[in-house]
Specification:
Layout: E1 2-3, E2 5-8, H1 18-31, H2 40-45, H3 50-59, H4 67-87, H5 97-106, E3 110-114, H6 119-129, E4 137-139, H7 152-164, E5 175-179, H8 182-190, E6 194-198, H9 204-208, E7 213-215, H10 223-229, E8 233-234
Parallel strand pairs: 1-8, 2-3, 2-5, 3-4, 5-6, 6-7
């Protein structure tokens, strides 16, 4: 087998925006005359789609939403996120992401984003940060019915990469996922993908229990060594 693709989660891997999402969700809850409990956002929402997050938070409070009303809340959430991002002079992109992406590109590996975040969130941040051109495709939360920890997003990414590159014959085992949450790590593993966990959200010892590799910084993740330990080797750059 050959390492062919690196699949990035978005929130907590590319951008440090947990506090932004929590504030927006807290505001949405207050608008519904409800209130988040301490630690509840992390428990319910981290690594999961906005649809899953909002549905579960309201369900816990005896509120069952129609699809129409839920779509309205999701639209408000997306608009609030975009307004917040557009108001920032500098985006909270993790400082070593761009350099790590350059290293992957030089290795000749394909890159994609596989996230529970809304496509509009991902595209806005990638465009503004100048990172968009590095990714072959995006699988977003609104592309799927099932959120992480279901493997659907990762399986779809493999399928779409094969559709985009006929003859690529990508298999899940030939991918490496980058994740920061337990839900994301579980999703990748269920899809048959090995995972490098980054300690952006949880401490090293907690991520280490779940991921195949664990690093504090992207600079610590040596792709050649990962490939060797997988008994695979990176694909050389195209001539």
């Amino acid at each position: 087998m050959t390492l062919k693709a690196v699949l990035f989660d978005f929130n907590g891997v590319i951008i440090n925006d947990e506090s932004i999402h929590e504030k927006i969700i807290d505001r949405l809850m207050l608008d519904e005359n409800l209130q988040l409990k301490r630690g509840e956002f992390r428990e319910v929402c981290l690594g999961r789609s906005d649809r899953t997050c909002i549905t579960e938070l309201l369900k816990r409070r005896g509120r069952y939403l129609t699809e129409t009303y839920l779509d309205r809340l999701l639209l408000r959430k997306a608009q609030a996120y975009q307004e917040t991002i557009n108001s920032l002079e500098k985006l909270p992109i993790y400082s070593d992401v761009a350099e790590f992406i350059d290293k992957i590109r030089v290795s000749g590996l394909k890159m994609a984003v596989v996230s529970a975040a809304m496509r509009s969130d991902i595209e806005l941040v990638l465009d503004r940060s100048g990172l968009a051109a590095n990714f072959e495709l995006i699988v977003a939360g609104d592309d799927l019915m099932a959120s992480k920890p279901a493997p659907d997003g990762y399986l779809l990414a493999v399928e779409l990469l094969n559709q985009k590159y006929p003859g690529f014959n990508l298999q899940a085992i030939e991918c490496l996922a980058l994740e920061d949450t337990f839900a994301g790590i579980e999703a990748a593993k269920k899809a048959g993908i090995q995972v490098a966990g980054v300690t952006h959200t949880y401490p090293f010892h907690m991520i280490q229990r779940q991921a195949n590799w664990t690093v504090d910084y992207f600079a610590d993740l040596e792709l050649d060594r990962v490939a060797q330990l997988c008994s695979i080797a990176p694909t050389p750059p195209a001539a």
